[in-house]
Amino acid sequence: MVHDTPARIASFSSRQAAEDLVARFREFDALAIVRRPGEKGLPSPPPPSVIPQPRVPVAIGLIALGITQLGLALWWLFQEPSEGGRRILLGVGGLVLGSLATWAGIWKLRSRELD
Protein backbone atom coordinates (compact mmCIF):
# COMPACT_ATOMS: atom_id res chain seq x y z
CA MET A 1 0.00 0.00 0.00
CA VAL A 2 2.81 2.40 0.87
CA HIS A 3 6.13 2.28 -0.96
CA ASP A 4 7.83 5.23 0.75
CA THR A 5 7.35 6.15 4.37
CA PRO A 6 6.20 8.37 5.91
CA ALA A 7 3.28 8.75 3.55
CA ARG A 8 -0.20 10.19 3.71
CA ILE A 9 -2.72 7.39 3.53
CA ALA A 10 -6.03 9.18 3.85
CA SER A 11 -7.72 12.50 4.62
CA PHE A 12 -11.01 12.71 6.47
CA SER A 13 -13.45 15.53 7.10
CA SER A 14 -14.50 14.19 10.52
CA ARG A 15 -12.30 13.33 13.46
CA GLN A 16 -14.30 10.17 14.25
CA ALA A 17 -13.59 8.67 10.81
CA ALA A 18 -9.87 9.42 11.21
CA GLU A 19 -9.78 7.83 14.67
CA ASP A 20 -11.51 4.71 13.32
CA LEU A 21 -8.77 4.29 10.71
CA VAL A 22 -6.07 4.91 13.35
CA ALA A 23 -7.61 2.16 15.49
CA ARG A 24 -7.50 -0.26 12.54
CA PHE A 25 -3.84 0.56 11.91
CA ARG A 26 -2.94 0.06 15.54
CA GLU A 27 -4.51 -3.41 15.46
CA PHE A 28 -1.60 -4.33 13.18
CA ASP A 29 1.00 -2.46 15.27
CA ALA A 30 1.30 0.24 12.63
CA LEU A 31 2.12 3.84 13.47
CA ALA A 32 -0.64 6.30 12.69
CA ILE A 33 -0.52 10.06 13.22
CA VAL A 34 -3.65 12.21 13.18
CA ARG A 35 -3.28 15.91 12.46
CA ARG A 36 -5.83 18.66 12.57
CA PRO A 37 -6.34 20.82 9.49
CA GLY A 38 -3.73 23.54 9.36
CA GLU A 39 -1.17 21.70 11.50
CA LYS A 40 2.22 21.59 9.93
CA GLY A 41 3.34 18.00 9.48
CA LEU A 42 6.08 16.20 7.71
CA PRO A 43 6.88 17.40 4.20
CA SER A 44 5.24 15.55 1.37
CA PRO A 45 7.15 12.43 0.41
CA PRO A 46 9.00 12.45 -2.86
CA PRO A 47 7.22 10.81 -5.79
CA PRO A 48 7.92 7.11 -6.19
CA SER A 49 10.74 6.17 -8.46
CA VAL A 50 9.73 5.97 -12.10
CA ILE A 51 12.93 4.35 -13.29
CA PRO A 52 12.00 1.05 -14.93
CA GLN A 53 13.62 -2.07 -13.59
CA PRO A 54 15.95 -3.57 -16.20
CA ARG A 55 14.68 -7.14 -15.84
CA VAL A 56 14.35 -7.96 -19.54
CA PRO A 57 17.64 -6.42 -20.80
CA VAL A 58 19.60 -8.05 -17.97
CA ALA A 59 17.97 -11.42 -18.64
CA ILE A 60 18.69 -11.23 -22.36
CA GLY A 61 22.28 -10.21 -21.63
CA LEU A 62 22.77 -13.15 -19.28
CA ILE A 63 21.34 -15.58 -21.81
CA ALA A 64 23.57 -14.17 -24.59
CA LEU A 65 26.62 -14.33 -22.31
CA GLY A 66 25.80 -17.91 -21.32
CA ILE A 67 25.33 -19.10 -24.90
CA THR A 68 28.57 -17.40 -25.96
CA GLN A 69 30.41 -19.02 -23.07
CA LEU A 70 28.96 -22.44 -23.94
CA GLY A 71 30.17 -22.07 -27.53
CA LEU A 72 33.64 -21.02 -26.39
CA ALA A 73 33.79 -23.90 -23.92
CA LEU A 74 32.88 -26.41 -26.63
CA TRP A 75 35.58 -24.92 -28.88
CA TRP A 76 38.14 -25.35 -26.07
CA LEU A 77 37.06 -28.96 -25.50
CA PHE A 78 37.27 -29.97 -29.16
CA GLN A 79 40.69 -28.44 -29.79
CA GLU A 80 43.66 -30.68 -30.22
CA PRO A 81 44.79 -31.81 -26.74
CA SER A 82 47.75 -29.93 -25.35
CA GLU A 83 50.26 -30.80 -22.67
CA GLY A 84 48.95 -30.39 -19.14
CA GLY A 85 45.26 -30.61 -20.08
CA ARG A 86 44.64 -26.90 -19.61
CA ARG A 87 42.11 -26.69 -22.44
CA ILE A 88 40.03 -29.46 -20.90
CA LEU A 89 39.94 -27.58 -17.59
CA LEU A 90 38.97 -24.37 -19.40
CA GLY A 91 36.30 -26.22 -21.37
CA VAL A 92 34.69 -27.84 -18.33
CA GLY A 93 34.80 -24.59 -16.37
CA GLY A 94 33.32 -22.75 -19.34
CA LEU A 95 30.50 -25.27 -19.64
CA VAL A 96 29.64 -24.78 -15.97
CA LEU A 97 29.82 -20.99 -16.20
CA GLY A 98 27.85 -20.85 -19.45
CA SER A 99 25.16 -23.16 -18.08
CA LEU A 100 24.78 -21.08 -14.92
CA ALA A 101 24.61 -17.79 -16.83
CA THR A 102 22.04 -19.16 -19.26
CA TRP A 103 19.94 -20.61 -16.43
CA ALA A 104 20.12 -17.33 -14.47
CA GLY A 105 18.99 -15.36 -17.53
CA ILE A 106 16.04 -17.65 -18.14
CA TRP A 107 15.09 -17.52 -14.44
CA LYS A 108 15.31 -13.72 -14.41
CA LEU A 109 13.22 -13.49 -17.57
CA ARG A 110 10.52 -15.74 -16.13
CA SER A 111 10.46 -14.20 -12.63
CA ARG A 112 7.73 -11.69 -11.90
CA GLU A 113 9.23 -10.22 -8.74
CA LEU A 114 9.95 -6.82 -10.33
CA ASP A 115 6.70 -6.39 -12.26
Outline the structure in words.
With 115 residues, the chain is mainly alpha-helical. The protein has 2 domains: 1-48, no CATH class; 55-110. It is 53% helix and 0% strand. The protein contains 3 helices and no strands. It has helices spanning 15-27, 55-77, 86-110. Helix 2 (55-77) runs antiparallel to helix 3 (86-110). The chain is rod-shaped.
Alpha-beta classification: mainly alpha
Strand share of the residues?
Answer: under 5%
Largest sheet: none
The number of helical segments is 3
Gap from first CA to last CA: 15 Å
Task: Count all strands and give the number.
Answer: 0
Computed CA radius of gyration, to the nearest angstrom: 28 Å
Count the domains. 2
Summed over residues and divided by their number, the pLDDT gives a mean of: 78
Described by the principal axes of the CA atoms, the overall outline is: rod-shaped
Helicity level: 40-55%
Q: Catalogue the unreliable spans.
A: none
SSE order, one letter for each helix or strand:
HHH
Topology:
Blueprint: H1 15-27, H2 55-77, H3 86-110
Helix pairs in contact: 2-3
Please supply descriptive tags for the structure shown above:
single chain; about 120 residues; mainly alpha; rod-shaped
At a glance:
By secondary structure, the chain is mainly α.
